Amino acid sequence: MVTEERVRDQLRNVIDPELGMDLVELGLIYDIGIHDEGRHVDVTFSLTSPMCPVGDLIQEQVETEVLSIEGVETVNAQLTFEPMWNPDMMSPAAKLFFGR
């Protein structure tokens, strides 16, 4: 069964190349929606900066990782900057790693 937790775990494989940490720990995954009994997944995510040169690559990786989950047939990975990401959105472990 496809769950938000399962999708979030899979998205830990998507690493922000600039910071070397996964999108989940960085707080860049804003929302996950599971639809049609798990066959379709919506992921709303952000980047650490609107000027990020690898945004397209990260979006592609988000889609690839979610599609690798058994039962998922389609994914909509939506990039947003609302709200704008900030370091306070990171997990406690990421904050500790970065000395925050």
UniProtKB/TrEMBL annotation:
Residues 4-76 form the MIP18 family-like domain. InterPro entries: Fe-S_Maturation_MIP18, FSCA_dom_sf, MIP18-like. This is MIP18 family-like domain-containing protein. It holds the Pfam family FeS_assembly_P.
